[in-house]
Design brief:
245 residues; mainly beta; Lipocalin; ten-stranded antiparallel barrel
Amino acid sequence: MRKLMVAACGSMLLAAPLAHADVVGLGAHVSYWDSELSGKATDNGDVVDVENDLNLDSDSNANASLYFEHPVPVLPNVRLNYTLIEQSGRGELGANFGGIDVNTGADVRSDLDLEQLDLTLYYEVLDNWVNLDLGLTARDLDGELIVQQVGGTQASKTEVDAILPMGYVAARFDLPLTGVSVGAEGNFISYSGDSLHDFNAYGQLDIAVLQLRAGYRQMSIDYEDDDESLDLDIDGPFISAGVVF
């Protein structure tokens, strides 16, 4: 996926409408995502089910975002987003996986770490009671799945390390005079059999500079690098709190 053409990304950004905010805006959010994991991992042709075989369960999720909007024409607005997902579990392999021979012990301890940092450049296409943003995201994705034989020395490591250009879209509908709104936003890329989609939908309440959200987030990763691959779905409800100026 590193081979995605930079020229294509530049063309998408230049094609965006040159809308801009009326005033300078700054906002920050932190959130808790109660995510569940399903899917599979492949290592040299061996396949493991991360939910049923490894029994991975969420240990912690860290999510934070920061955005800056300005009234300068042509220049895009900027958004940073950070997500860390850590899951671990103890399970039993039904077949050999990544050098782990089930004949010498099928009990395994597994740890999954997924870390991503997004830099998004976007334009405001609409900015009234209907809000629409379009842009591009550069996502630095770093992931590692370690499966370790319990009571033994055999282990498998499946890694993801990529910087991905992704499309970005966000829409929000404000209910006049209520401080209540509903919205959705997402990033997406699909190329040569690999894909990554990250979407969420939410309800929002604004109280002065305080912004509260509750919603549902779903992320799908289908990534292959030589003989290793991850095909994962991570989803669940989230809540967030932020301030806007």
